Amino acid sequence: MKMNGAQAVLECLKRENVEVVFGYPGGAVLTLYDELYLANFPHILPRHEQGAVHAADGYARTTGKVGVCIATSGPGATNLITGIATAYMDSIPLVAITGQVAVSLIGRDSFQEADITGITTPITKHNYLVKDAKDLPRVFKEAFYIARTGRPGPVLIDIPKNVFAAEIDFEYPETVNLRGYKPVFEGDETSIDAVISELCNAQKPLFFVGGGINLSNSSTIMREIAAYTGVPIVSSLMGFGCIPHNDPNYFGMIGMHGTYAGNMSTTETDLLIGFGVRFDDRVTGLLDEFAPKAKIIHFDIDAAEINKNVRTHIRVVADLRWSLNTFLEKIKQRPSAVWHQQFKPWLNQLKAWKEEKPLVYNKKSPKILPQQVIETISKITKGDAIIVTDVGQHQMWTAQFFEFQKPRSFLTSGGLGTMGYGLPAALGAQVGAPGEKVICICGDGGFMMNCQELMTIADLNLPVKVIILNNGVLGMVAQWQRAFYNGHYAHSVFKTKTDFIKLSEAMGVPAIRLENKNEIQKVLEYALNSEGPFLVEVCIPNDENVLPMVPAGARLDQMIMGG
User: Catalytic site residue 497?
Assistant: First the structure.
């Protein structure tokens, strides 16, 4: 059928079952926006392009579907870069559609021209510059396929202004044939046999679960493996929700702000099995001393991640949906009771460590402490909520004190550490999961980076609850300055105080300030149970630290403890 390039883009989105797009119009994409208007295609207008890409990211993390965002050429496109890099680091399926100046003007430093495909090459799985409208159906088919298959990630499609207006005979391809892209699914079964052999011989094994479990929707099978074997489990930041945090065999996060039991177990284990993890520097601490007594086994879909940071004894390269099911089948050839009996002394050791040095804070303090706030939110919701954070101290307190119960319930920028991520990602999460309670927990610094998205939330009357832990400083920066820079608070303290209540109300979101410790429960219950959006500003001390903490360059067992 005959249609123009803009109509073809919309038809491609429909063929890929795209439910909503997040975008910001501009000159180079006006033809596309006219067709969006005529087709009444579901579209959400944020207040900044970065808000659009983070919202698409939040939508993707919550739903498991490909998130889609749109921006115009030049500054519109470049404003997506941080969000694209965020999605790339955390393996989030995303398709970013950008406008470009007309083909005849490319390379002439034209108004609002930027080489966005060149700029984003290192932070996308693939990208396209579409100079001929007839290529649009093939490109979109490939882009969505690349974004969602294998190790997921962002793909960018750059479309010149004149391509949107050009007429084509539309025909959507049924298949994708990319010679250089063949994502794996099944792996080598003999490698899993070798893993079983090592597990049979181990006395102190440890399961280390990461974001790959969430991305592959493998939480259920992972829980079954853990329950059948009785092997203790620890998690990366991105692995939260794979195992319920109140599971007696779960011992928390490992790494820089990991639990005592988690970090000690990593130090003492004789067999560390990582599932869908990157073994990044925040996890390993001093790399040469990471898991020094262990053979390391790595399950991952991406062969490039194997041996990138830590040397592995056995690698299992496959989709976790295949490898975990195969692993479980082979595990079940041995009775569950036999596995449990073998690892019982080791499990008891971890339980002793957890009891000896649990996560603590000063509950007698007259001040409102952030740990208590997070703990209270966890108790009110019973862990049944989608929690979205920005990056900083509040992110780590949330990781430590919220008891996550289900997969895809913790949205945060893990790999890139993007401040300003939280609020727009919460917007996208709520759009993707309208029946869920979505709570955005952020610091005062990160909140101000994309606070304008409160207006978008108000426009849509989305019931997002925003909790600002306001300490008047860049909390994690200040903590490091206290610990390692002689308390030199170099440009980390805000001299003027923003009235977040007035700001929120000005953007159409009701708000309340929490200053009295005795009112924590009452205020949070009121806010979390209110209809529509709501913001709570919580006034916390400016010198509270996130502890435990492993200093940079130290081993995981060299933690600075709290309490």
Answer: no
